[in-house]
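Lab notes, practical 5.
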Amino acid sequence: MTRAGREFSTSYRAADGSELPLLVFEPAEGTPPRAGIILFHGGALREGSPNGFAPHCRSLASREILAMSAGYRLLGRGAASIDDCLIDVRRAVEQFGRLAASRGLDAPHLAAGGSSAGAHLAMLAAMTPSSTEFGVAALVALNPAGLNLGSFEPDAQRRLAQEVGIAADRLTEYSLIEFVRPGSPPTQIHHGTRDEVEPIGSVRQFRDAMVRAGNECTLLEYAHAEHGFHYPGTGGHFDDVIDATTRFLLDRTATT
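Output from the prediction step:
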């Protein structure tokens, strides 16, 4: 393990022209990064900030990984719907790719991910078609949400669609299990068995669907852990999450 290096804040431009924060954490000077990852915070698309992932990024940078944490427009604060949030995630990844390239990393050495709603956005952007290629080779999801929205009762689907600013009949457009295809990026999921937001059963169904399609999808289950278990001081799982994420990234995306 190396010590962490330079940390700084920059920005990228959202579709509405506003500037959104992008925190950058680099390995120590003289240590070229072997892989890179961009993370998106949770908060039900209405709360949270990139600062929430600063401890994760700092720890990953000490392990020769270029790590970034990005903001995106939130509902009620610049975003009219989840569509705006998703557009921002794609734009953030484009900026991440440019910064990573200047440090010798191209798309096969990059990953995206996040926590809860942020994990959902990163996975959705990687697994759904767009006008531009989503330039990452792997995904890391910490207690992701939205894996199987079609399993919700109709009333719950209508409420959730309204909450994220879309028509009720569009909700399955955001259900990740609907987009599982052969060739989906290798994915590592960290999830607590007592998660109260996304039941572990839904996560297992998604994992199984990915494997049936011929994709690599590893689910790391944390016994008795609830939503948000991966933060420092919350259940004592932080180091295990960082260690497993590091191994996954260096095994699948690292430069030689």
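Observations recorded by the TA: The mean pLDDT is 93. The beta strands are 4-13, 19-27, 35-40, 65-70, 74-75, 78-79, 110-115, 138-142, 187-192, 217-222.
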